[in-house]
Sequence to fold (105 residues):
Amino acid sequence: LSSVESHDKQDKIRSNGYQVDTPAGAGFKLGGVILGDAAFYFNSVPSTYQWDTCGPHAIIRALGGDVVQVKNRNQSLIYNDSREPNPGFLAFLDRNCAFKLLDSV
Fold:
């Protein structure tokens, strides 16, 4: 989970049975998803940039997962302007688990 998430949002996620960790660095958190150490990486606010996510996103896609926009779960992150921060996103390998999380927050 991104460390910029509110305590209220963290508590809501915990109340749905998820363990919440907030290590530093988007690349580290995305790496946790790639390695299977984390079920997902949730970041609801624009606090990362395309260079933080594009490489890990490609690996996650190759593994059958995705990095989708929080406000439109059917839309992957789009890489077309490196000056703009990414919108809120959810990275995952298991779509059902990820969408269950989105439904709960």
Notes: The beta strands are 40-43, 66-69, 72-76, 89-92. The first helix runs from residue 7 to 15. The helical segments are 7-15, 26-35, 50-62, 95-104. The radius of gyration is 12 Å.
